[in-house]
Amino acid sequence: ELGIRIPRPLGHGPSRFIPEKETIQVGKEDATMHTLFAESFATLGRLDNVTLVMVFHPQYLESFLKTQHYLLQMDGPLPLHYRHYIGIMAAARHQCSYLVNLHVNDFLHVGGDPKWLNGLENAPQKLQNLGELNKMLAHRPWLITKEHIEQLLKTEENSWSLAELIHAVVLLTHYHSLASFTFGCGISPEIDCEGGHTFRPPSVSNYCICDVTNGYHGVDEIHASPAGSVPVSSTESVCEVEALMEKMKQLQECRDEEEASQEEMATRFEREKRESMFVCCSEDEESAATRDVSRHFEDTSYGYKDFSRHGMHVPTFRAQDYSWEDHGYSLVNRLYPDVGQLLDEKFHIAYNLTYNTMAMHKDVDTSMLRRAIWNYIHCMFGIRYDDYDYGEINQLLDRSFKVYIKTVVCTPEKTTKRMYDSFWRQFEHSEKVHVNLLLVEARMQAELLYALRAITRYMT
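== SESN1 protein ==
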């Protein structure tokens, strides 16, 4: 009657991919989750949808929140407004308007200059110089060389210090991979964010105003079936789980009986690396529409390209020559104290996280499957572990799963609900969120390894 426009949520729950009733409801969480919600609220000033989906795995969420809080708010080489602006630059590379909008607000809140938000060319030259590293890290990290590092550290009055550069690199990789999580789990914008609400026409005679606040959207709300979801018989998907467990058992037996030679292992890696190029990311038009955020970065046509295409041959990055554990960790910790420790803990939790379940099965050792997912991602980035048999990847990861992995890791903005629904159809949503945590951390570590190796080469 007063003509006041009342916002109502566009989505149902924190994720477009996971039915609201299957997420953890606020008010029904256990004591551990309640503490994490309180921490998240105190840090961010809101309980955001990323937290509401990540809380399926409280141990990981705790580590994630601690790391993000340290990177954005604790003492460090970079001023606060620079940190949020770098977050905007990184998220914009994947057109992740959800993260861009969050950090635009935070950037202004800590006193950032609104003019910078009109486009990267309005930001200080020092931040503009980071554009090249941002795009390579996001799309083709294997191309980063010590010359790129040298340009940033030696550009006279706009130069970066080593400590500042490490802080920036960790922030860029954090937000590239968080964009992967956001798209991979179909995170919806909160009601107060752009894209998170619509307005009801002024006439609200057909139901009570309080219904809007309680999330009831009236009879005229369109409840379409999930776009493109493929109905699947439960016996078919149960067979899928049984078949996967049987393969794991057989591989374990083969492992125990014989070990492939080093040459054979190298050949299998090359084969898997080559095959990963023929796993096409989705070109589906169903992917979430995003506001144009391209003004926050340069060279909008630059995107992911497989590293062995167009006659380019990128030498294999051998993990025993430069690894996170032996090299990257100590470099980060030396130049940005405590961050190496926080990242290390987060990588370990994601990699080792298990509840010993697979769909409806209990007491299952899932380590072989987790390692296959992690190593497949590193293989797509050209990183090889000498002690791993890459033949296992084809046995354990089917085509639809590989398409999902590659899309979420390399071109997350193209992830669709259809792709999320089509892999591991009998598994719990919490297990699919766990997969996303593996993708996020493996991607972040791969990007970091290329950047830190280039920094090490520059220093030596």
